[in-house]
Design the sequence.
């Protein structure tokens, strides 16, 4: 009898411990609020699926570099991944809506943008064998300056830090000279008098300790770039129905939690800038109006460059409030 019981237990054991393991690749640091949110998502999935699915999170470009993650997941080299939406622009042009300056000016705007953007992103991803799970914005991009800025006239003759064609164009339209400076070299450039202003998030300012030469921070909310988490569609479809439901539910919770975390991090970062002696202000009415006009100009140019599908985002975004 003892032998029979032991054999029966042995036969059941593999089923009880059967587990699917996924690798989820991200290029961001383990300390990033995005990564912490992903880790919580993975834990929620494992708990909700009673251990049927375990997701290993590989942060800081450890598995694949940020720009390579979508292709790696598409090819099944990793089952899931995270990247910033603008990394998808080459294959999915409408993902670039995230980087059109001075269009999305608040978290509620960003939410509305994602609501109209998501169905289109899902269709494009599906055509590549990917499934979008959720997206979370970074804190908004603000204006750092060594002196007071009241209107675009104050940028004339100054130097603005740039890092891509979009920021170069912003500098030029504001009348500033673009200066290509990696974020890690900003403090050195400021100390050397080679830089007067830059557009980046309060969080990035805190992480790079820009206080010193920088005296002002304006919450212009230039844009709200988003990170998107996605999965290989075949890997998702191979899961049992209850496990798929667990993933979907945990993803929805991660999105809600992530947006709240982003807003909290934005507020904490602005507070830290103030504690370090940087004056935090809203943009003047004149500057805000000028930035809105730039947003209209950038919107028209983006629609022209992307084509008709861009209208499927901007028309409902602007008119279905």
Sequence:
């Amino acid at each position: 009898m003892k032998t029979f019981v032991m054999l029966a237990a042995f036969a059941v054991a593999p089923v009880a411990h059967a587990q699917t393991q996924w690798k989820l690749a991200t290029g961001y640091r383990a300390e990033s609020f995005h990564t912490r949110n992903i880790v919580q998502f993975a834990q929620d999935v494992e708990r909700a699926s009673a251990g049927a699915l375990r997701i290993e999170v590989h942060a800081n470009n450890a598995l694949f570099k940020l720009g390579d993650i979508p292709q790696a997941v598409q090819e099944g080299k990793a089952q899931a991944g995270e990247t910033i939406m603008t990394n998808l622009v080459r294959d999915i042009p409408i993902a670039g809506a995230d980087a059109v300056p001075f269009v999305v000016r608040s978290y509620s705007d960003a939410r509305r943008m994602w609501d109209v953007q998501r169905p289109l992103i899902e269709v494009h991803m599906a055509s590549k064998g990917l499934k979008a799970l959720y997206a979370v914005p970074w804190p908004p991009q603000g204006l750092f300056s060594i002196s007071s800025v009241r209107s675009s006239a104050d940028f004339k003759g100054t130097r603005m830090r740039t890092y891509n064609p979009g920021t170069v164009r912003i500098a030029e339209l504001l009348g500033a000279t673009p200066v290509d400076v990696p974020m890690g070299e900003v403090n050195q450039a400021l100390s050397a008098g080679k830089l007067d202003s830059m557009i980046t998030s309060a969080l990035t300012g805190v992480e790079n300790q820009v206080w010193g030469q920088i005296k002002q921070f304006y919450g212009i909310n230039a844009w709200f770039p988003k990170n998107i988490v996605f999965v290989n569609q075949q890997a998702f479809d191979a899961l049992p129905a209850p496990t798929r439901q667990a993933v979907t539910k945990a993803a929805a919770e991660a999105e809600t939690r992530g947006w709240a975390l982003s807003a909290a991090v934005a507020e904490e970062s602005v507070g830290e800038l103030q504690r370090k002696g940087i004056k935090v202000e809203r943009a003047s009415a004149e500057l805000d109006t000028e930035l809105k006009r730039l947003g209209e100009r950038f919107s028209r140019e983006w629609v022209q460059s992307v084509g008709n599908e861009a209208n499927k985002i901007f028309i409902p975004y602007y008119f279905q409030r």
About this structure: The chain has a mean pLDDT of 93. The CA atoms of residues 270 and 287 lie 20 Å apart. The two ends are 72 Å apart (CA to CA). The first strand starts at residue 20 and ends at 25.
